[in-house]
Amino acid sequence: MNAVIFDGELRIEKVPKPLFKKGEVLIKVTKAGICNTDLEIIRGYIPGFKGIPGHEFIGIVEEADDDSLIGKRCTAEINCACGACEYCKNGLSRHCPERTVLGIINRNGAFAEYVSVPEENVVIIPESIPDNRAIFIEPLAAALEILEQVKIEKDAKVLLLGDGKLGLLIGYVLPSTGCDVTVIGKHRKKLSLLENYNVKTVLLNDFIDSKFDIVIEATGNPSAFNKALLNVKPRGTVILKSTYEGGFDFNPSSVVVNEITIIGSRCGRFSDAIDFLCKYEVPLEKLISKEMLLKDAIEAFEYSAEPDTLKVTLNVNK
Q1: 192 lies in a domain?
Q2: Which of 81, 92, 207, 279 gets the highest tally of CB atoms within 10 A of its CB?
Q3: Could you report the per-residue pLDDT of 8-27, keeping only the tens digit for each?
Q4: What is the CA radius of gyration of the chain?
Q5: CA distances from 48 to 15, 98, 104, 233, 279 (A)
Q6: pTM of the model as a whole
Q7: Does any domain span residue 48?
Q8: Residues whose CB is less than 8 angstroms from the CB of residue 183 and which lie 6 or more positions away in sequence, other chains included
């Protein structure tokens, strides 16, 4: 099969199709999305990464122990856990210390014609959700994770930093709480996608610092961390959605003096994302900047890294 390979160099080559094995499901990939984590991997975010990246995808089940799954349109939770440790037993398999992570840690991902995942990770996609919205299930789940971790009251003032792919998804999610949302970004065109969704949008250069109950940092830029601390109220909460390629200097004095709560926020539950897509009519397809073929993946990565680009998807097996 054709696949995108990264081992210090990004390329497309022929590799063996995954062999079906008991307990796993073989999925024929139809569409995959490039996200910031994929871009960071090829920049060295995970030292020594070798294999097939890609974790946002949809496809059709081709082989499974459970015959009822065959032919179903699906995606898959990306964390493949051991199922036996204390984290797994307490519903925190996303933090299993023995987990592999699809296209990220010790498991080949979805930038290929086929991908194999544990059967318990398979998530069937309702027919009511079109492909160009379903491809956002994984990052939408990450956006919704904020609501699982933090109770956002209706009278809360929330500041969201970032108008990239994840930032915009969070911007679509937050109004469901009824809170007062302000989104800061660098790109007027991207911010315009949040029009009519009960959020205020401000260009970074026009924003005047003020205090918010909750600040969400989703820029991917380390400099935004201090911006978040500057704009959160004493005893307020900063939620970090960004992962950074490198570290940065941090003086915790303001966190201590102002008694700030800092919460890291990562993956969410796919079931929450599917419920959201079934309940709310959000045109996520507008976040797709370009659709390309798997054979053009190198060009797609380059295009995805451009500042004005949102989601780039790869049409696979076409």
Answers
A1: yes
A2: 81
A3: 899 999 999 999 989 999 99
A4: 20
A5: 20, 18, 11, 40, 41
A6: 0.93
A7: yes
A8: 160, 162, 163, 167, 171, 191, 194, 199, 200, 201, 202
